[in-house]
Amino acid sequence: DHLCVLGLGYIGLPTAVMFAKHGLKVHGVDVNPKVVESLLNKELHIEEPGLKEMMIDVMNHGQLTIGTEPQIADAYIIAVPTPINSDKSANLDYVINAAEMILPYLRENSLVVLESTVPPRTIEDVLVPVLSKSGLKIGEQLFVSHSPERVLPGKLFEELVNNDRVVGGINERSSQMTAELYKLFVKGNIHITDATTAEMVKLMENTYRDVNIALANEFAKIAENLGFNVWEAIRLANYHPRVNIHRPGPGVGGHCIAVDPWFIYEKAPTTAQLIHMSRMINDHMPDYVVSKLEEFLKDINDPVIAILGLAFKGNIDDMRESPAVHVVNKLRKKGYRLRVYDPYINQPFDDKTVDFDAAIDSADCILILTDHDQFKHIDPKHSSKKLRTARIMDTRNVINKTLWELEGFKVYSLGM
Ligand code: SAJ
Prior knowledge:
By secondary structure, this protein is α/β, with parallel strands linked by helices. The protein has two domains: about 190 residues, Rossmann fold (3-Layer(aba) Sandwich); about 130 residues, Rossmann fold (3-Layer(aba) Sandwich), CATH 3.40.50. Helix content is about 40%, strand content about 15%. The chain contains 15 helices and 13 strands. The strands form two sheets. Strands 3-2-1-4-5-6-7-8 form an eight-stranded mixed β-sheet, with helices on both faces. It has a five-stranded parallel β-sheet with strand order 10-9-11-12-13. β4, α4 and β5 form a beta-alpha-beta unit. It is elongated and about 75 Å long. The protein starts with a strand and ends with a strand. The mean pLDDT is about 95. Ligand SAJ binds next to α8.
């Protein structure tokens, strides 16, 4: 009933808190002393509704302790980042480091679960060799499995509890022990498989979305050339019971969907052609948006552009890998004058204004890059009074084109 969680980020911290709440004695470890110190002061470095209260509660009850060094436990969960190197290969340093850290604490019958997203065969080819340095016989004295996280930030607790979970052990016993552990709080089904399959399940889910979004983006470009409305066409196609085309946009952001396909590509570069092509298509979208915007504004001398949205998707405060940020940087490099507005982003950002009116005041064009709900309700009449030139470009299909045209706007919607 002792659990040690390595990595106290978006996944590790809520996971540690949940296990502590469900009766385990949990010790959370982070290699960053600043993170540990702030958590001990009951300050959170990540935002998630409900997390802080729950963490304080389990800490006060002595169910959760936090430090920079592991402790002896029955089970270890590794939930550290797996960033991508500049050559698009996975950086497994944090995983290897976490595994090495726990070596002196491992005992007979310990269980090690990796939650971090990793390239296929990482458990078998990277993690197991490190853990075998403990001297314990893997699969007989030490049990190992992969159980990838698949939760959506913002809905973390709900998804942690209710989503189905995949558990892939290096053998049956490892899988069973892992399933028993998660059953403490998971209400979704727990599906048992082998470690490499579990690794691929996680990567395939996000790759499916990336490829599907690339297809939607390609349809959008075709629509612009052939003269039809891609949004209307996708909506109608999706009435078919076996079709679910995703949404076009300025590109794919976040730290998962834009990254995970590369983990497959790394291990199968000659075969993963569609996966590679989809990554290229989605990564090229910010350039496409910039070139279309330049064409749209070519008759205006030294235009001022009001950017709406920096976050990588709607209604969140996360700018990681955001296509909006890529578009802004490209425009800035080309010397455009920009005003940037995103009601969700609190951190400083060049040319950012705190209110919407200041962003659009005397601008020549509004450019919508994020689908925040708030942007659906912008009033074209009000905007037409503020702007110097009545133009708007919408890359997320959040505005009603006809309403804006009625107010005298020249409108360019991606894919129409
Ligand atoms: N996007 C589009 N068109 C779409 C859908 C998304 O352009 O039709 C863009 C979004 O604007 C955003 C990016 O793709 O820039 C990714 O957004 P997302 O909402 O699809 O996914 P993430 O990255 O927030 O979270 C995903 C989720 N995976 C799946 O839905 C299969 C989540 O469940 C995973 O836990 C997470 O990745 C992860 O950690 O891997």
